[in-house]
């Protein structure tokens, strides 16, 4: 395992560990496996349903998501037809099952027309009634039209997430995003009028030409709309993105994070992770879901699915030609094609334990040693003695049965996460040929 001390000598921003392992560690399976066998021994009483829409009105310069800007006419209809075939194959393979979360992302789901959005929710309703569980949809300033927002509320959406990144036009223009601040403000007013119970805003720090002062101005403008949640993302410059060849002249990201964190805590927000801040939570009873232990069903060509021992998806790409080729392949799949899995990553016992550690430790609530022991019949510090190195750097505190990152440790999440990757996963990610 790579020394944490060595990694700390580099930038704090070495990788966003939102999922483990990353899709660049996935590979073709030696033998395709029928979908019903993948889920045969899995608990299916609390699943997450994710629908992926790989279309946007523009491609942001920093974006490394699987998405296509301004697709050809008719491709959306063909995509929804393929999504319907996939849904039918998945439902036949995994039922009976209970879903307790639904998210629709992309891309930009609201790029679709109203009729296409209705079709999308018809697909979701093959699995669950969106009015009975938490439902989140991503949108953008230009596609947050009043009629579409009204449709989302009618179909049960209670959380809307909008990527703003910055309220400063010069800053967003520097990363290839041609949005006007007036358009963003108008979209936010429309969203507030639509009365979604949960509003999330995404902001980004470390943009070219951004200062700590201008960054805090964006955060304060966001607060004027009283969002329930704020996600603060550090800029990453990644291969095959629009700004992939740029270099950051002065890296102010850590200072931006620290200043914004202090501002949000003073404003009454609580921190959930390095990126997520939350103003309030509903007191209503919602179905339980635990990302560390419960499974996920992903529908769409860029979605991934999780079981305990297998994570699977389609292939991953960022470049225009690579994304287009994968989408075209998806469009031509039959229902029988969707009934088997041929691409992913198998998690042995050690990788399952490592995933639990990473996904728990990078949350403010931390890792419960007793929960780990109940799941894996072993002690986490015996399995991962390297965690004690976090204590040497004052990145972690041990309180009773819990291991929690300190504020100093939390701000190093994008170093600690990659540090915990296994050597096999690290090697697969490094040798992945990104298209």
Which structural class should the secondary elements be placed in? Answer: alpha/beta
Say how many strands there are. Answer: 18
Number of helical regions: 17
pLDDT < 50 runs, ≥5 residues: none
Average pLDDT figure: 92
Largest sheet: 9 strands, mixed
CATH topology of the largest domain: TIM Barrel
| Helix content range | 25-40%
Number of domain modules: 2
CATH class of the largest domain: Alpha Beta
Q: What's the architecture of the largest domain in CATH terms?
A: Alpha-Beta Barrel
Shape by Cα distribution = globular
Spatial order of the strands in the main sheet? 10-11-9-8-7-6-5-2-12
Q: Report the C-alpha radius of gyration, rounded.
A: 21 Å
- Give the CA-CA distance, first to last residue: 29 Å
CATH superfamily of the largest domain: Aldolase class I
**Fraction of residues in β-strands:** 15-25%
Would you spell out the secondary-structure blueprint of this structure?
Elements: H1 4-7, E1 27-34, H2 35-39, E2 47-53, E3 55-56, E4 68-69, H3 75-94, E5 99-106, H4 114-124, E6 135-139, H5 146-154, E7 159-165, H6 169-173, H7 181-194, E8 198-205, H8 212-223, E9 229-234, H9 253-266, E10 270-271, E11 276-278, E12 296-299, E13 304-306, E14 310-313, H10 320-331, E15 340-346, H11 349-361, E16 367-368, H12 369-376, H13 380-383, H14 388-392, E17 396-399, E18 402-405, H15 407-410, H16 413-419, H17 423-430
Parallel strand pairs: 2-5, 2-12, 3-4, 5-6, 6-7, 7-8, 8-9
Antiparallel strand pairs: 1-15, 9-11, 10-11, 13-14, 14-15, 16-18, 17-18
